[in-house]
Amino acid sequence: MEVTCECETVRFTTPTPSPLKVYHCHCIECRKQSSSAYGTSAIFPATGLFPLSADLASKLRLWTRPADSGRTVDCYFCKECGVRVLHRIRDPDGTERETVSVKGGLVTGLDWTGAAHIYTRSAVVEVPEGVERWEGALGEMEGRR
């Protein structure tokens, strides 16, 4: 799948033809980074994308923040337009998660059906009935240890 930021400076192909899972996250951090009611992430294997190529790395800035879980979130965004592109989580010992979260709105042709709503305890909009929903993190989130 093709991924492009708003100004199209950052562009790459996902490591697999479809994501492992799509999440709509209602946590406060995702609301802030998306400037919306929730953030959408398409989860892909990190292999094939990480380590980042020199070309892609040269177009991204990295901002790192602590997570409530004790983990660290590496947040990558476009140096030109500032759009958040992807996240990768590291465990307290520095081990990187085997998956990467690509911001859903940047993935051309992403199928949004079947997305799980997570951290719904923080939701500021109504979560539709009948969808997969979790008050906090999904117990078996893709790439979670």
TrEMBL record:
<keyword id="KW-0862">Zinc</keyword>
<keyword id="KW-0479">Metal-binding</keyword>
<keyword id="KW-0456">Lyase</keyword>
<feature type="domain" description="CENP-V/GFA">
    <location>
        <begin position="1"/>
        <end position="135"/>
    </location>
</feature>
<dbReference type="GO" id="GO:0016846">
    <property type="term" value="F:carbon-sulfur lyase activity"/>
</dbReference>
<dbReference type="InterPro" id="IPR011057">
    <property type="entry name" value="Mss4-like_sf"/>
</dbReference>
<dbReference type="InterPro" id="IPR006913">
    <property type="entry name" value="CENP-V/GFA"/>
</dbReference>
<dbReference type="Pfam" id="PF04828">
    <property type="entry name" value="GFA"/>
</dbReference>
<protein>
    <submittedName>
        <fullName>Mss4-like protein</fullName>
    </submittedName>
</protein>
<comment type="similarity">
    <text>Belongs to the Gfa family.</text>
</comment>
<dbReference type="GO" id="GO:0046872">
    <property type="term" value="F:metal ion binding"/>
</dbReference>
